[in-house]
Amino acid sequence: MLESVVFYAFGGVLLFSALRVITARNPVHAALWLVLAFFTAAGLWLLLRAEFLAIALVVVYVGAVMVLFLFVVMMLDINLERVREGFWRNLPLALVVGLIMVGELISVLAYRIWGTGTPAEPPKGYSNTRALGRVLYTDYAYAFEIAAVVLLVAIIAAIALTLRRRKDARQQDPAAQVRARREERVKLVSMPAEKEG
Fold it and tell me: Which domain, by its residues, includes 114?
């Protein structure tokens, strides 16, 4: 009973935060709502006894990807008016995709309620982390490596987007700092002492 209450509470928070991701006007606020959605989804994974996936979701998405998203969003000058222009044009397609996803979720819940019943408990000594690792690094090794390369390319592209040359930016030249001499930096000026009158 308590597990069902926690599941529905987490599900409500997840749905609300996902809704705020797409309705927030500020991109930084949308990214922070997405962080909350990831944490709540990790809680749902924990309820499903998939501890490794929950920790991976928090470490990879919240710890790495979302920090990268926030970095890019705050470094780029995003024109919010141009972003909002395409909202009504893309609304029909977004509604169709949303209805498909809602239908899939309803079918999953219906199967859970009226289906074959609850799954059997795993055998003693079973580790979902070991089973996931065995499948991931044997059957899906190439797909895993391709996903890693795609993520690496995305990180490099995000860094390249933020490396813009600005005229008003002041940059340090370490080589010039090392070559600096005291005579070039300090100038001694001889001044006569002031007399007290």
Answer: 89-119
User: Is residue 170, in this structure, part of any structural domain at all?
Assistant: no
The model's pTM: 0.53
- Buried (b) or exposed (e) across 109-124, using 16+ Cβ within 10 A? eeeeeeeeeeeeeeee
- Total number of domains constituting the chain: 1
Flag whether 103 is in a domain. yes
- Give the residue ranges of DSSP H helices in the chain: 2-23, 27-47, 51-56, 66-75, 80-85, 87-114, 128-136, 141-162, 174-179, 182-185
pLDDT class of 31 with cuts at 50, 70, 90:
confident
Looking at the domain assignment, is residue 9 inside a domain?
Answer: no
How many residues make up the chain in this entry? 197
